[in-house]
Structure formats: C-alpha cells, structure tokens
C-alpha cells in the first residue's frame, strides 16, 4: 500500500493533521487542542471519552487543510500500541505460520483476549545466532475507536503506527542511541542501533509537566538502558530527548553524568543534521517529532 500524503496524529491533549506533496514537501499543518479528559490513552480501556470534542477537532483541522475524502496514516498514542522484542532460534518465514506463533507467545503478556489482538511484526538480525522479532500489538476495539473518528471526517485510515515508532526514523547512524520521549504522562524509552531496535518500554509517569524531576525521569529510563548494556555488552553512545521543551537543560547534567555521552534534543539534532527541510520547520516548532519522523520515513 503506497503511503498516503496525509497523516493524523492523535495525542491526549491535541490532534494534528499534516499534508505533504508527492515530492515530500509539507503543504499544510493544522493543530487543534483537545479538552482535558476528552482522550485518555490506554492499551485496555476506552480511550475516547468525549467523541464529539475529538471529532470536532479533526473536522476543524480538515477544514483548514481543505481535506476531502482521502487516505490517511494514523499515529496513535504510545500506550495504545505495545511493542515486544523477542528472540527465536528459528522463526517461520511465512506470515500464516508466524502470526499464530506470535499470538500464542504473547497471549499471556497482554491483559486482553487473544481474539482482540491486532498484531504486526518485523524480523531483524540479532546480536548472535537466531532471529529477533519486533512485534507491535494493540486491542482491536481501541484501534477502531480512533479509526471511527477518522472515518467520521470522511478520511480512510490505512497505516496505523504509534507516534514514537514513527519518531525513531529521525535517529541516524550505527551508534547505540537511547530515545527518551515524553507525551503527557506517557514515557517511551527505546534503544536503536542502526536499523535494529534493541529495547523498548512505555510507562506511565507518576508526575509530569513542571513536577517531573531529572531523578524521577532517570529512574524510569534506567531499566531499559541497563538491559541493553547487559544484553549487548556495550555502552549507550547517544541520548536523544523529546517532549521536555524548554526544560531540557535542567535534565542534561544528570543524564550526561549517568550515560557519559552526548544528550540532546531529538528535533534540534535532526535540524542540525539537515534532516528537516525548511518547509517542515512548523512541525519542529510544534514539537511534532512523530509526524516529522513519519514524513522522513516515507521520503
């Protein structure tokens, strides 16, 4: 399926819509705030608690971009989509054999019935023998909540991905890189080495916004970093942070002291490396790293 030239990102506090040309230039961006409590991301419970408010925000964004009936990619909050990295000595090549195996392996890892499991996977090379499989799964009724909102605006949702998975496209190079991304109360920690995802964790912060401290953030990030260092037997070489905005300098000393490597803004690093053309600067200004990564991925 070709990538659509329209993408919708839905977060707990806002809804964003971006359109780009077939050549990859951003042609329009609309961002609409959502009322507090209208949407509460969850892997198991109903997410959209005020469908009228979410629908109104999307219709307003569509009106600004003159959107009619079109295909659209859909970026969902990280807590909705769970990600697992599993190692197999041998793994089926055919999806008709691989999917039942993954459902069986993961049915005890998620708090909902296997029959409601929407699942996709990719193979990747492990550090040693065998094969690693990265699996993304979600509860089908919850994904349909979001798809129904999009269809209500006469859009056709096709590709569905979490915002942080989309943002990973902004990471470059073969150095082990730790991504720390905050969106509302959700903290996503991922470690990428070249094209290989080595670790992933999404947790709910007990506090967020101005109440979040550097120590509290490090305590949540550390388990994934420690797992990587123990499993891959090498140190993290770079840390990229998203979602702290102007507070990032407060967190730098502790993070740099812990990981002994450069720590910087994911978006600002992408700008400095020339990954963000001028026409996409509005997405940087609104801290839309998920949508920006999605555009970069399809370029």
Describe this structure in words.
The protein is α/β, with parallel strands linked by helices and 299 residues long. 32% of the residues lie in helices and 31% in strands. The chain is globular.
Q: What is the CATH top level name of the largest domain?
A: Alpha Beta
Q: What class would the helix/strand composition place it in? A: alpha/beta
Kindly report the spatial arrangement of strands forming the biggest sheet. 3-2-1-4-8
Number of continuous helical runs: 9
Q: How many independent structural domains?
A: 3
* CATH level 4 superfamily of the largest domain: ATPase, nucleotide binding domain
What percent of the residues sit in helical stretches (DSSP H or I)?
Answer: 25-40%
Radius of gyration: 19 Å
Strand content bin? 25-35%
Q: CA-to-CA gap between the ends?
A: 15 Å
Shape: globular
Keywords:
about 300 residues; Nucleotidyltransferase, domain 5; 3 domains; 5-stranded mixed sheet; 9 helices
Detail the topology: elements first, then pairings:
Elements (H helix, E strand, L loop, with lengths): L5 E5 L3 E7 L5 E8 L17 H14 L5 E7 L5 E7 L6 H12 L10 E8 L6 E9 H13 L2 E8 H5 L8 E8 L2 E8 L2 E9 L9 H19 L5 E5 L5 H12 L3 E3 H7 L8 H5 L3 H10 L1
Parallel strand pairs: 1-4, 4-8, 9-12, 12-13
Antiparallel strand pairs: 1-2, 2-3, 5-7, 6-7, 9-10, 10-11
């Amino acid at each position: 399926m070709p990538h659509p030239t329209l993408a919708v990102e839905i977060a707990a506090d806002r809804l964003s819509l971006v359109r780009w040309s077939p050549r990859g230039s951003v042609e329009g961006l609309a961002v609409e705030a959502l009322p507090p409590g209208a949407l509460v991301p969850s892997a198991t419970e109903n997410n959209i608690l005020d469908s009228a408010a979410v629908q109104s925000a999307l219709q307003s964004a569509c009106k600004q971009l003159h959107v009619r009936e079109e295909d659209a990619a859909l970026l969902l909050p990280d807590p909705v989509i769970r990600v697992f990295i599993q190692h197999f000595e041998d793994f089926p090549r055919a999806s008709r054999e691989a999917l039942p195996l993954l459902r069986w392996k993961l049915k005890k890892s998620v708090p909902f019935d296997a029959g409601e499991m929407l699942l996709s996977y990719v193979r990747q090379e492990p550090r040693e023998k065998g094969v690693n499989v990265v699996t993304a799964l979600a509860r089908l009724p919850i994904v349909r909540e979001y798809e129904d909102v999009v269809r209500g605006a006469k859009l056709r949702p096709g590709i569905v991905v979490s915002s942080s998975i989309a943002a990973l496209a902004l990471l470059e190079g073969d150095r082990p890189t730790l991504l720390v991304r905050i969106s509302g109360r959700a903290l996503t920690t991922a470690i990428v080495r070249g094209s290989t995802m080595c670790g992933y964790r999404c947790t709910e912060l007990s506090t967020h916004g101005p109440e979040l401290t550097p120590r509290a953030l490090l305590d949540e990030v550390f388990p994934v970093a420690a797992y990587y260092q123990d499993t891959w037997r090498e140190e993290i070489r770079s840390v990229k942070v998203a979602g702290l905005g102007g507070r990032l300098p407060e967190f730098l000393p502790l993070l740099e002291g812990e990981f002994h490597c450069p720590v910087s803004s994911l978006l600002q690093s992408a700008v400095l490396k020339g990954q963000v053309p001028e026409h996409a600067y509005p997405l940087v200004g609104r801290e839309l790293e998920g949508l920006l990564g999605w555009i970069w991925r399809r370029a």
